[in-house]
Amino acid sequence: MKLITLTTDMGLNDHYVASLKGTILRLASDTMIVDVSHTVKPFDISEAAYHVRSCFADFPEATVHVIGVDSEPIVNFGGSDGSFPVIMKFRGHYFVACDNGFFGAFLGENTPDGLWRMTDIMSRDKLFKFPTKNILLDAACRLLQGESPENFAEATQDFKRALSPVAVSETNLIKGYVIHTDSYGNAITNIDEKLFRRQGKDVPFILYFKRKEYFIDAISESYNEVPQGEKVALFNESGLLEIAINRGANRSTGGAEQLFGLRVNDMVRVEFTPQGSHQTFESLF
Question: Model's pTM, two decimal places?
């Protein structure tokens, strides 16, 4: 079965997504199309990377993932070296996007298995009117039909990195950031479980967010480990620390995003107090 996923910032109020799907069915009629998200904030490649990174491994190998966010190529704009459409192979999957920082945001510290830059389209500016359809989907469908990327793209090792916040570990402290708030109002941070566990097993901690009066001092395995309406911290399926309110996504509260005012790029702190250490002055309050 041929599989393609779509992630865009096009929304669902216009004809754009339908045009993408019609193009796929015309070029590769036996393809199954899966929508990851079409409500990515306009031009927000970090959000697009979060969505794709969180679910791509659930698909079979050889799936082609198209990311139509900030997809218009740039040729020597502002003295830069341009922003070309690129094909990436990673863990048996193909990813087709513009090299605008998406690949760096998606990969983090990982390295791709292959990169190919599509430079032959730069003289065909009519394609730029709808680049996700005319450039990215065309390449994706060629991959779906079994064509090798070497046939229409040049191998490269370079890709741009987006300026995404990184969680930092210090002595008895981790500083991280909210990177996404989902439709339940849950705030997902960039603090992963591996980084958290490096502080040691069963080390007491306090997770602070937004203001000092907002804190959590335990990690739960599920939302229902706390009473309905209570705040909870857990590591989600992607291994990222999440701040939530159990069953809080309703008209009265709206989840952690609304009740605590948590927004993307807000800092969160995890202060550890291993045996023999001293609590910080701030942690006493």
Answer: 0.86
Question: Are 82 and 151 members of one domain?
Answer: yes
Residue 209's Cβ-count burial label (10 Å; 0-12, 13-18, 19+) is buried
Range of the domain at 14: 2-155
Q: Domain end: 134, 155, 176, which one?
A: 155
Whether residue 150 sits in one domain with residue 259? no
| Helix, strand, coil share (%) of the chain residues, nearest 5 | 25, 30, 45
Q: What is the CATH number of the domain that holds 257?
A: 2.40.30.90
Residues 6+ apart with CB under 8 A from 269: 173, 174, 175, 176, 207, 208, 209
> Can you point out the beta strands (E) in 110-210?
114-117, 154-155, 168-170, 173-181, 187-192, 205-209
Rounded Cα gap, residues 97 and 132, in angstroms:
8
Per-residue pLDDT tens listing for the chain (285 residues) = 899 999 999 999 999 999 999 999 999 999 999 999 999 999 999 999 999 999 999 999 999 999 999 998 876 644 456 688 999 999 999 999 999 999 999 998 899 999 999 987 766 667 788 999 999 999 999 999 999 999 999 999 999 987 778 899 999 999 999 999 998 999 999 999 999 999 888 899 999 998 767 899 999 999 999 999 899 999 999 999 999 999 876 645 568 888 888 999 999 999 998 876 555 545 444
